[in-house]
Amino acid sequence: MTYIPPERDEPALDQTRQLEFTPPPMPSTGDGGPVDPFVGRVHEAAEPAEPVRSTRDRVLFQFIWEGILLLLTLNALFLVYRDEDALFGDEFGSLADALDPHALYLTPVLLAALAIGLSLRLGAVNLAVPAIAIVVGWVARPVDANLWVHAGFVAAAAVVAALVYVLLVAVFRVPPWFAGLALAAAFLASTQAIERFAESRGVDSIAMWDPPNGVYVFAGAAVLAVAGGLIGLLPGVRDGFSAVKRMADGGERRAGAVFLLLGGTVLSMLLAAAAGFLMFAYTLAPTTEPTSLGFGPYGIGSAAIDLQLLAFAAALLGGTSLWGRRGGVLGTVLAVLAVWAGMVLWNHAMVEAGDASWQDDYAPLIDVGILFVALFVSFALDRLGQPKEAIEPEDRIYTQEMRPFEPMANGPDGTGLFEPTLPDANAQQR
């Protein structure tokens, strides 16, 4: 049986006929070109903002250490005062009479410690600083019979050496320690040439200056140390030291860092030259006779310590960081006084015990022990004095209290799920 559909009066629709529909015009840009409505707006990638970090050091620990160092220094000075008759009775009569020459002998040590401390805080350790003090103070002959002219030559040599050092570090990117070592070798190798130059100028003898009041000279150096320490407390100055450190380590060269390195190196070289010039002008040298003045760089045998080693130990004991930037205010002066008092007491014990005594055997080990204690102090203050680092946004800890889960009002009861609205359900509302 075949089904025959009934005939319809309506004509059959042509399913292939296209609808007559004109789409709306496409939007265009200002130059007439079409705009694709499906292309989203291109956003420029924003660079991630670096978190703002605090650059202020925690100087509280530095002041705490200087307070402890002050107590230790006062204790050492009291021991010297208590034994003044045994220490200075036969040589000077009393401590008051011995204070003047001892302060004069101690001033070059303080100046050398300030020079090395400034070089350390710059972050570019200049090993030529102690060399220039040694060459000027002990080896190099004067180039003129007038000491003031000789002082001018010494200052000029220090400035030239500082310019060469900055040129090597900032321009040729030579590591600071190697640049200083090369300059130190140049200073030591030039002593014979300086002697030839002095002979060519006909300088056979020179009239030395009369020793001044050593207490005033040492007090002037101490004021210079405190003033420099106060300036170093400024956050801007410390940030400049950090910039010099980054440049010396191979980072970006900036004009401010270069000029700060130049100024600091010149000042450091001049302080070292002043230390050596004082030793030469006032004949501050070791003597073969047993004396209370034979401490540190002026000692003989087991009592002797190199000037650079003693200056490094005093600078580090004062709170100067080996890693740059940080330093103390009064710490270097206190460290120099404390080390001097300990050396005077120990040297007297060696003289009383005689040769081949345990005091004489252990004297070099004590010097090395002081250096290691100074290294520990510098390391501890550097770690404690670092600023607190700000927490970066991606590392922040979520501390907001979690809310209990509540189902949505439009979802099925008790499921908490979103119920989508189907098109057929909304067909009558359109």
UniProtKB/TrEMBL annotation:
It comes from the Bacteria. The keyword GTP-binding does not apply. Residues 1-11 have a biased composition (Basic and acidic residues). Residues 1-38, 402-430 are annotated as: Disordered. This is Uncharacterized protein. The chain crosses the membrane at residues 63-82, 102-120, 125-141, 147-170, 177-194, 214-237, 258-283, 295-317, 329-350, 362-381. Keywords: Membrane, Transmembrane, Transmembrane helix. The keyword Membrane applies.
